[in-house]
Write a structure and sequence with these properties.
The protein has 62 residues and is an all-alpha fold. The chain contains 3 helices and no strands.
Length: 62
């Protein structure tokens, strides 16, 4: 986890807000090599989008 992510999580907790961790854990969760533009390839792949949806849904179910 990056330092800025820790600050965001701490602030969310201090304010009683929900913060969902959607950082990519695996390369397969990013569109690496699927696009010529490196910045676009850093966006979520289909697997990454599913991981994000699952993370949000699990928080909403609570």
């Amino acid at each position: 986890m990056y330092n800025v992510d820790e600050v965001i999580m701490e602030e969310a907790q201090a304010r009683g807000a929900i913060c969902v961790d959607i950082l990519h854990k695996k390369d397969s969760e990013m569109a690496l090599g699927q696009y010529w533009h490196e910045g676009v390839s850093m966006h979520p792949s289909d697997e990454g989008m599913e991981m994000i949806a699952d993370a949000f849904f699990s928080v909403l179910k609570q």
